[in-house]
Amino acid sequence: MNNSVILKSIKYESIKSIFTSIADSEKISRAEISARTDLSLVTVGKIADALLELGIVSQIKEVRPQAGRRAGLLSVNQDKFAVILNITTYEFRCAILNLQLNLMERYAFAYRSNCTYQENLVAFLSEASQYVNRKYDMNECFGVGVAVPGPYHAEDPSAAASGTFPC
Question: What is the separation of C-alpha 61 from the centre of its chain, rounded to a whole number of angstroms?
Fold first, then answer.
């Protein structure tokens, strides 16, 4: 196996375990993350700094009565969210999730039987976009995911659309 593939895998696992530690805690220090994940404090610090720079996590200074350096406590940025569009059935849905993958809100589309699938899809995407833009700051949107009908074929992504969409 190629060394760069191994390093990328290790890095991904490190990022994942650090983010999971932050997401599972209300507030956590880098030292606590290091102890939980068995990663070095340097590794935790570099990854935490990158997550801070991306706005995925936020940091507040630890409050304690004694003098001395206060740790920066990390938590998932509560302003960030993801939009998930589900078009796997005629009951189109839109879900807003925070970065801890908790459902914040849901929008359901009323399918119009007098319209075609494509017309309903266009109407749903327009209504979902308006709904999300009205309620949320899209600068805080971390990503948009779309669940589509049919199997995914990594070799030929167009294969899923060729036979399973109800057009």
Answer: 25
**Element (DSSP H or E) covering residue 142:** strand 141-147
Q: Is 71 helix (H, G, I), strand (E, B) or coil?
A: coil
Residue 9 amino acid letter: S
pLDDT per residue over 86-137, tens digit each? 998 888 999 999 988 889 999 999 999 999 999 999 999 999 999 999 999 9
pTM: 0.67
Alpha-carbon span 162 to 147, nearest angstrom: 16
Say if residue 113 is in the same domain as residue 132: yes
Question: For position 47, what pLDDT does the model report?
Answer: 92
DSSP 62: P
Long-range contacts of range 48-54, CB-CB < 8 Å, 24 or more positions apart?
A: 48/18, 48/22, 48/74, 51/18, 51/19, 51/22
Which one of 76, 98, 120 terminates a domain?
76
**In which element (H, E) is residue 50 found?**
helix 41-53
Contact 93, 111 (CB under 8 A): no
67 plus 89 within the same structural domain: no
Q: How many CB atoms lie within 10 A of CB 158?
A: 7
Same domain assignment for residues 72 and 92: no
The answer to whether residues 44 and 108 belong to one domain is no
